[in-house]
Amino acid sequence: MFTLTPETADDWWEVEALYDLCFAPGRTALSSYRLREDVAPVAGLCQVARDRDGSVGGAIRYWPVQAAGVPALLLGPVAVHPTHQGEGLGGLLINASLHAARDSGWDRVLLVGDAPYYSRFGFSKLPDICMPPPTNPDRVLGLALTPGAWDGLTGKVTRAA
Ligand SMILES: CC(C)(COP(=O)(O)OP(=O)(O)OC[C@H]1O[C@@H](n2cnc3c(N)ncnc32)[C@H](O)[C@@H]1OP(=O)(O)O)[C@@H](O)C(=O)NCCC(=O)NCCS
């Protein structure tokens, strides 16, 4: 049983520890992290899942970016503690936060990840949107939160102004 709450400043280092546990060493060297440097995450959409004892079981963060010159959300990192993977918590974090993103007026979301996992949430390849190199273009996925929000967009993903 997990409770989702918006991430606060007090949660930051516990979430970092979870990400360090779940991702390969050197995760912050990934090009997606260059889009996050010196930019605040989107308050309210970043969520922490804690069990009854207060332990962090999973977390998700979002950053604002510009994609082809228009605002977009960058989903991630998202991770679930290894002892709780496969129980649906990742899906819960992603669905709940996407819902909140739609409700708060965001039009589009992108991420760098595995299409076989993210397709279940409606994400599909964004062939005309380029993440900073080196990024495998097959892993650049998008979801329109409002109909057609990715249609006709071609260009680079850059840091939010
Ligand atoms: C990816 C992650 C967040 C998923 O969270 P989770 O709580 O384990 O996932 P859920 O329980 O919601 O979903 C489990 C399903 O997703 C599938 N799945 C998980 N990771 C997958 C992946 N990388 N590719 C394809 N399918 C994947 C599982 O096989 C399972 O499939 P099933 O429903 O057919 O049995 C979690 O496994 C994790 O933290 N992994 C390490 C960090 C990571 O890779 N984060 C994502 C970066 S892109």
UniProtKB/TrEMBL annotation:
Residues 2-146 form the N-acetyltransferase domain. InterPro entries: Acyl_CoA_acyltransferase, GNAT_dom. SUPFAM superfamilies: Acyl-CoA N-acyltransferases (Nat). GO terms for molecular function: acyltransferase activity, transferring groups other than amino-acyl groups. It holds the Pfam family Acetyltransf_7. Gene3D superfamilies: 3.40.630.30. This is N-acetyltransferase domain-containing protein. It comes from Pseudooceanicola marinus. The lineage of its organism: Bacteria, Pseudomonadati, Pseudomonadota, Alphaproteobacteria, Rhodobacterales.
